[in-house]
Amino acid sequence: MTADAPLDARTASAAPTAAARPWMLTAGAAIAVAQGVLLTAYGVYLMVEGLLTHTHTGVGLTEFGGFIVLLLGLLPLFAGRALLRLKRWGRSPAVMVDTLCLAVTYFTFQNGGLQIPVGVAVGLAGIGGIVLLLHPRTTATLWPAGYGK
């Protein structure tokens, strides 16, 4: 596309259709977006909780931790959006967050109790995201046959 082309023609070619995406890529992107929404919401919760309650961790530490979790939640949100737009760069951060889910699962099993069901759900989401995003059809969609030659 040239810069002289009409705006609607440029945006039509830039926006992928749902038919161009395999369902594995769409499902993997949906898992990444869901992880991002949950992490972002938890970060906001931690910041609000730190402002409204008196904690023993010191002034501002809970709020700072919530801010870090909020920033961590933005990564899978942007990665999921990029995957839905068929951008290759979105797969690496999404797989990284899915891998971190496996570490969270391990530590929830170490603590036991009621955290085990949460750990199982987080682990299944992580494994599902990894399998869906590393599937050969997803790879073929993001990196076409003639890419890099």
Can you tell me about this structure?
Helix content is 73%, strand content 0%. With 149 residues, the chain is mainly alpha-helical. Mean pLDDT is 86; it is low at 7-15.
In short:
The protein is mostly helical.
Topology:
Layout: H1 7-14, H2 23-52, H3 61-84, H4 91-111, H5 115-133, H6 136-142
Helix pairs in contact: 2-3, 2-5, 3-4, 4-5
Mean pLDDT over the full residue set? 86
SSE run: HHHHHH
Radius of gyration: 19 Å
Which structural class matches the secondary elements?
A: mainly alpha
How many helical elements? Answer: 6
Note the main sheet: none
Residue share in β-strands: under 5%
What distance lies between the first and last C-alpha atoms, to the nearest angstrom?
21 Å
Count of extended strands: 0
Contiguous low-pLDDT stretches (5 residues minimum) are: 7-15
Principal-axes shape call: elongated
The proportion of residues forming helix, as a percent range, comes to over 70%
What quaternary form is this? single chain
Question: What characteristics describe this protein?
Answer:
149 residues, mainly alpha, 0% strand
